[in-house]
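Subject: complex prediction, re-run

Hi both,

The earlier run crashed halfway through, so I resubmitted it with identical inputs.
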Amino acid sequence: MDTTDLNKPIEKFLSLFGQKILRFFKGTGSLALLCKSIILSIPMAVKRRHLVVEQMVFMGVNSLPLVIFTSVFTGAVSAVQAAYQFQGYVPLRYLGTAVGKAVVIELGPVLTALVVAGRVGAAVAAELGTMKVTEQIDALETMALDPVEFLVMPRYLAGLVMLPILTIFSDFVAILGGLAVSVWFVNITSYTFLNGLKAFFELQDLFAGLLKACIFGSIIAIIGCYQGFITEGGAEGVGSSTTKAVVLSSVLILVSDYMIAHLLFG
Amino acid sequence: MIELINLHKSFGKKKVLDGASLTINKGETLTIIGRSGVGKSVMLKHIIRLLEPDSGDVLIDGQNVLAFSRKELMAFRRRFGMLFQGAALFDSMTVDENVGLSLREHTEIPEPEIREIVSKKLRSVGLKDVEHLKPAELSGGMKKRVGLARAIAMNPEYILYDEPTTGLDPIMADAINELIIRMREELNVTSICVTHDMVSAYKISDRIAMIYEGKIIFTGSPDEVKSTDNPIVQQFIQGKAEGPIKAV
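This time it finished cleanly. Structure:
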């Protein structure tokens, strides 16, 4: 029997497995180097403030309508679901507490981040990916301008600052949505809802939510920029980078959400 | 003087440069010719360290470019201007912002003076009243001209041209050739051009180098290129499918 025939599928599997492992470590290393470059370029934020403000408008202000729309229904559905689960077990005066806690700690920051990852992460990866394949990033390098300082750092700072601000809007609007549903369909008064909300409100819950938002904003910006920077192969490559940016950002948002929850509340 | 010494570069399993060596003298215009995908642009990008070789050296006036720190590299790059194949203009900026970017970033020149320099550079490439336009509003030829104006904005010592006439009609291609010749005459720059357009290569070059299978296989004046008995060079310059270079 020819042993090489038997070995071929195993060799092929090991080769593919090895390539995947190498690609993973290469990607992780490149991402770490990008993070280092971003941190080193932060002192240039004052000089590049017009770019930072431009990105803040794009990431924050322009995302606001979508975030508000999503948040109204997030609050509304959390009130309906909580009222259903309370039936026969928990007095409805705690409905405001349940909606408030769920929105401020979890739903506000996570759903805002996922919405922004879809809208902004994709746009960042597509814009930088197009710049990469049309040699605009090479042109910046040739002109002795640092692409990280010019393109990545403003987006990173915008994500870091605007995600918490969007989350505050989201929390507020979601609670209003929950309040509206509670008053109109669950038949409790707004006084009862707001009393329940206030009774167990803790400032540290709000800070935990905002801390999450800062981390999610950083993830969206860094992953979007990274995927843009490693784009290769024209329009197809740009499309692929855009998809990867959204998928990877969303996965990292959910994983880091668990890790932060474990650290703060576990 | 630019010296590329024994450059090796692979992308994955594909070996692009395999011991390529080339010297470019001060003040001359040297054109690198060869088939598409043989590594002409890769070689050009090594000069300014947009790419780093797997092995080999790149020397500019005796200094090893690969040994530069990031800060030294940035200072070194200010001595260069580069015209990219697709012009690589920044989509989000106007023509004025594109051409004046280096001036605004690297010099303390007052804004009115920068605007004047930008207009002057645009006029020198045959464009006027386009400062307010975005790249999307320009034709292919105009983009190349703006790209060239941007490349010469800082009065560089060296200009790198990556396929300057590709995708242009013959008249516009000749206008770009004339501009390249004028840049050398007026600014006394050292120019390195990558092309497979032989009309352009003969017109603009002091010397022509041909790259084949990762190596420079021939260097000479345009007349020497025309009269060489090297079958590979002859097949390429005559554009024949039959010969030592396989078409597919």
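The mean pLDDT of chain A is 92.

- K.
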